[in-house]
Amino acid sequence: MATTEEIRAGLAELVNDVAGVAVEDVQLDKSFVDDLDVDSLAMVEILVGCEEKFGVTIPDEESKNLKTVGDAVAYIEAHS
Amino acid sequence: MTEIVITGLGATTPLGGDLASTWAGMLAGRSGVSAITEDWAADLPVRIAGQIAVDPSAVIDRVKARRLDRSTQLALIAAQEAWIDAGFEWEAPEGSQVDPHRLSVSVASGIGGLHSLLNNWDAQRDKGYRRVSPFTIPMLMANAPAANVGLAVHAKAGVHAPVSACASSNEAIALAVDQLRLGRADIAVVGGTEATIHPLPLAAFSQMQAVSRRNDDPEGASRPWDRGRDGFVMGEGSAVMVIETLEHALARGAKIYGTIAGSGITADSHDIVQPDPTGEGQSGAMIKAIADAKLSPSDIKHVNAHGTSTPQGDVTEAGSIRTGLGAAADGCVVTSTKSMTGHLLGGAGALETIATVLALRDRMVPPTINLEDPEPDLGIDIAANVARPLPAGDLAGINNSFGFGGHNVAVVVTNANSTR
């Protein structure tokens, strides 16, 4: 079972890969849209990447609740 | 009539990552055709292509490139070069250089975002629909290159992407010239792009018996008008020009390469892929273009032919040039730069119109390479194997592009002397 930090770091790699955000900027308190400038289509790619990386399924209807990096990390921790 | 001048040029092709290297390669008679070494080509009957000299990944930011089909990436590279060459700054703030409402874009692709379409289908079929990129549609649509160029230069007077197979980018040029003449814009970014070196189109063109299978001699495979020709060679790349009204160009002190003096468009209405063997549609396009330019056939000193290296097409076009120019064909130097670049499909018209402009500027027609054993009795004067000089004075030239579907588009250009 991955730790919170491991999940955050793995998510940061995905956000960097898809949206070009520096990995060190992807911190738990950051909002994907407001702080990291990740648009909704990039968010789809990031969440699909999470499914592959963490073995977790994130339904489309759930994705709108994942506003911050912390929200996504918590969801992955709870469902993987 | 409003005179339309050319003020910026750019290209990325099998001969070079910019226009200067491409043009130097053409004048030197260098082939950009090479073997496809990827594993996927091993079982194909065609394993050669005019592959881009500088991969777009070397130029375009990785994250940006994720959202852009290869055809769009190539168009952006060519457009950036042309825009800067015209004296502008790339990705400058909207309205800081040109009135966006007077700027249009007309950039064509014959086939569209083929890699994006097929790669996403591969992902869906193999791993499920969740693996399909949410950017698939804006990447695969045929207007994506035009739309992305429009975003980069902030064009608001209209963004167009006419599709007519291998005549597409000549049609894009013709459309933009009409728009400028009609007063709907003052300046336009025009051209074409294609990136279809992928197993499916190679197999499909091969099944049509349309492409050369001279796999053991890639550089000798594209050989327009040579008796040993056996089909075209697929190429990839993009070419883009900035064109504007003479008034607009003079007001901003732009350098002028020449003019787009006129265009002529016809349709064969004969067959979905074969050209009308009488050449009536092809010569008709040339005759219309010369009339549109208010010139006479004797003014035409150079034709950059469609010249794809297909057995029937080359012969038909030679006859069409003879018919279109009449006795003036005797004083006209013809070439096919596809002998060096391969066939850029929707990018061909723009690249070859630029080659025509540069031939008039430098008074030097690039050669048709590999013309070792010409078809007899063609009735045209081809710059075989070595570049051929053009005379002093005002010069006009024609670029021909013909496409599956029976589309014929001829564009007449003149050298800069004609504008003074």
UniProtKB/TrEMBL annotation, chain A:
Q: Which coarse location class describes where this protein primarily resides?
A: cytoplasm
Say if the entry is tagged with keyword Cytoplasm: yes
Q: Which Pfam families match?
A: PP-binding (PF00550)
Tell me which Gene Ontology terms the entry assigns under biological process.
lipid A biosynthetic process
**Keyword Cytoplasm in record:** yes
A single Gene Ontology CC term: cytosol
- Any idea where this protein resides? Cytoplasm
Pathway entry: Lipid metabolism; fatty acid biosynthesis
UniProt domain Carrier: residue ranges: 5-80
Regarding how it is modified after translation, the entry says: 4'-phosphopantetheine is transferred from CoA to a specific serine of apo-ACP by AcpS. This modification is essential for activity because fatty acids are bound in thioester linkage to the sulfhydryl of the prosthetic group.
Family, as annotated: Belongs to the acyl carrier protein (ACP) family.
Annotated HAMAP family: Acyl_carrier
Name the job this protein performs: Carrier of the growing fatty acid chain in fatty acid biosynthesis.
Q: What is this protein called?
A: Acyl carrier protein
